[in-house]
């Protein structure tokens, strides 16, 4: 029976690349986001909904089990980034970023691990950001750090809690990646924020997630895929 992965934020950018990477591994994929469209690939099930809403997480888990019968991996990729000076954040910014980045991780991860525990097997990858351990002058990012830093820490906590039950939990920490999040006119300047001098591609992140998927002895790892950002400048 083919393995099954759930990927959040799967409609575009990194998430869409991760869908293709898992299909190349011959996994069945459950792809979710608010605007995701049905797929013609019978091994891709799409479930539309707001990941900050627990009802969406319940629906994704229910439809995954009803359609494909198992859950092997969960990629928590849905996330939003609001870069503003700290005092300019509105209550709405604060609520939205926490809702997508934290609630969007918490509800579906809780439900997925409850299924994985039944099989004593599973793998979770959280997509975070290297800003969480390496803030950049001129890129105000408190809400990203608050939420993605929390996810990095929760990655380690969950990895230890479930280490003896066959469930691995890792994170991929990207630098700045060419996705619809960043207009092409910003690429040259954003590239200079990396020691290697350029931005990353969605394939760089997808490859890192595939590595972690196949790395049975790796858990609690924050894998930086950031052109050297977290190492220093
Ligand atoms: N690109 C970068 O430079 C970069 C750097 C570091 C970390 N990251 C992280 O990488 C992840 C993916 O980023 P990306 O650049 O690929 O972003 P993106 O192009 O903006 O795509 C974000 C994805 O998340 C989904 N999403 C957003 N809000 C949602 C919600 N409330 N409910 C369900 N789905 C939602 C979007 O789909 P819908 O609109 O259909 O809902 C979309 O599929 C994020 O967690 C981001 O923080 C990105």
UniProtKB/TrEMBL annotation:
Pfam families for this protein: adh_short_C2
Family indicated by similarity: Belongs to the short-chain dehydrogenases/reductases (SDR) family.
Q: Name one GO molecular function term.
A: oxidoreductase activity
Q: Which organism is it from?
A: Pseudomonas simiae
Name of this protein: 3-oxoacyl-ACP reductase
Keyword Transmembrane helix recorded: no
Write out the entry's keywords from A to Z. Answer: Oxidoreductase
